[in-house]
Design a protein that fits this description.
CATH architecture: Roll
Strand order of the largest sheet: 2-1-6-5-4-3
Number of domains: 1
Distance between the termini: 74 Å
Oligomer: single chain
Shape: globular
Structural class: alpha+beta
CATH topology: Nuclear Transport Factor 2, Chain: A
Order of helices and strands: HHHHEEHEEEE
Number of helices: 5
Length: about 180
C-alpha cells in the first residue's frame, strides 16, 4: 500500500511539474494584478527603440482566443476591421518594430467595471521616440475579465484619430472633439 501511495505522489508531483512548465500564459503578478497594470504592460511591451519586443510577456496578458482588431480609415464610408490573433498581431508588427522605433503611451483612460468584467477606453499617442515626434493618436478599446486571480485581455479594438474624427474631450481629446 505504501508503494502505491508513494507512486501516486510521485506521479502527481511529476504531472504538476509538467503542467507548470507548460504554462506559458501565467503572467508575472505585477503585470496582471490590476487593470491599470495590464494596460501599462501592453504599452510597455510595444514601445521601444528599433528591435524585438518581449512577446512572451505580451502573450501572458491575453486569454486563449483573444483578438486584436485594428480598424482602417473609412474608404467610401466602409470601415474594415482586421481581426487578428495575438500571434497574427505579432507577425504583423514585428517587421515594423525591427525597422523603426515606436513608442506608445496612454494619455487618458476611462474604465468601467462590473463584477468580473472591465472595459477600458485608453486614449493613446504613438511617437517616433520617447519624447516625439507624434505619429498619431487614437483610442484602444480594451476588454478584460478577472478570473479570480488575475486580469486577462479578451480583445483590443482600436481606431486612430483623423480629420473629421477627433478624439472626444471626455476621452482626453481637445475641446473640438466633443
Amino acid at each position: 500500500m505504501r508503494i502505491r501511495w508513494a507512486l501516486f505522489v510521485a506521479i502527481l508531483a511529476a504531472s504538476q511539474e509538467t503542467l507548470l512548465a507548460q504554462d506559458t500564459t501565467a503572467a508575472p503578478p505585477a503585470d496582471a494584478v490590476s487593470i491599470e497594470a495590464v494596460v501599462a504592460t501592453i504599452y510597455d511591451v510595444i514601445s521601444g527603440p528599433v528591435g524585438d519586443r518581449d512577446w512572451a510577456r505580451f502573450r501572458t496578458l491575453f486569454a486563449d482566443g483573444a483578438r486584436l482588431i485594428p480598424t482602417s480609415p473609412p474608404a467610401d464610408s466602409v470601415v474594415a476591421p482586421r481581426v487578428l490573433t495575438v500571434d497574427q498581431y505579432i507577425e504583423r508588427v514585428a517587421p515594423f518594430f525591427a525597422r523603426r522605433p515606436f513608442y506608445e503611451r496612454q494619455i487618458s483612460a476611462v474604465t468601467e467595471r462590473y463584477g468580473h468584467i472591465a472595459h477600458v477606453f485608453s486614449t493613446y499617442e504613438s511617437l517616433e521616440g520617447p519624447d516625439g515626434p507624434l505619429l498619431t493618436r487614437g483610442i484602444n478599446s480594451i476588454q478584460l475579465y478577472w478570473n479570480g486571480e488575475r486580469w486577462r485581455v479578451l480583445s483590443i479594438l482600436w481606431d486612430s484619430e483623423r480629420t473629421g474624427g477627433p478624439i472626444p474631450q471626455r476621452y482626453g481629446g481637445g475641446p473640438e472633439g466633443t
